[in-house]
Amino acid sequence: MIDKKKVVIDCDPGIDDCFALMLCIKHLDVKGIVAVGGNTGLKYTERNARYMTELTGRPDIPVYAGYDMPMLNKLVRATEVHGSGGLGTVAIEEPKKQLEKQHGVDYLIDTFMNHDDISLITLGPLTNVAQAILKEPQLKTRIPEILCMGGAAFCGNTTPAAEFNIYVDPEAAKIVFESGIPIRMVGLNVTRQNHMTFEDVKTLKAMGNPVADFAAEILSFTAGQDGRTGLCDACAVSWMVDDHIITKSAKVHVDVETKGEFTRGMTLCDWREYMGKDPKMDIAHEKQYDKSDLVPNVDVALEFDEKRFREVLFGTIASYGE
Prior knowledge:
The protein is an alpha/beta fold. It has a single domain (6-319), classed as Ribonucleoside hydrolase-like (Inosine-uridine Nucleoside N-ribohydrolase, Chain A, Alpha-Beta Complex), CATH 3.90.245. It contains 13 helices and ten strands. The protein has helices at residues 15-27, 42-55, 79-82, 104-114, 127-135, 139-142, 164-168, 170-177, 188-191, 198-205, 210-223, 232-241, 306-319, and strands at 6-11, 29-35, 63-65, 118-122, 146-149, 183-186, 246-252, 254-256, 267-269, 298-304. It has an eight-stranded mixed β-sheet with strand order 3-2-1-4-5-6-10-7, sandwiched between helices. A two-stranded antiparallel ribbon has the order 8-9. Helix 1 (15-27) packs parallel to helix 12 and helix 1 (15-27) packs across helix 13 (306-319). The chain is globular and about 55 Å long. The protein starts with 5 loop residues before the first strand and ends with a helix.
């Protein structure tokens, strides 16, 4: 039997977070889940995280509440995308599973100061992680890696420059990206390579198990907004679940912009060594020459195997009925 990768997940469920949790709970050894305010308020994100552990048959996974508000930024939510409660129009009862009493930031500190074989997955604003680093700076050398759904190699969604998770709390993201912790970033440039539609809702409904039924309901809400959705967080965690789904990445230096009038929240990637001749490409996906004196700090995902991802996603959700 192959040992599952040990992870802690910091997230803001959120529709795509729920799909990500379905994948992680089945394929990874999830040691704990920490909720953060982001897609919606913390009272819903921590509730939704607890609900997902019950729905997937893993109420033994502890769930902690972290911060609801960004460090300095004005409050930004994505309830127009995820619904006021984070689950579209789906109404759920209060889970029986209780929230852990320990603050999520303290849980992160305790976990990574006492273990060196657990990876961190972040699917929301980086407020909790940044606060943990500020409270315990030794985390910079204790967290083996962060798999981050956030940012973008090029353009954003909340603004032309900034992706939502980074835009919500740019100061927190800057702290994390400058920490020296190895980061794998799955941004919008990758997640837009996946399209989920109403045909996928039908596929999920046909599976006939509670997880699939719930997945169909929440997918129908987000796909209904413009006929398709990327399920960003599920795409991101797939890199941890199956490392063949991300087929190309590049290690470059990434800064987080916190002061720009039009670029606040942007993940500014140094692509100078990747500028090629093809006018149809923003960058080449192979290094063209050595120029930059900035040290690479992020492994930026570039190419995505949508077919393989869909096979893993649907296979995983179907398996909850076995």
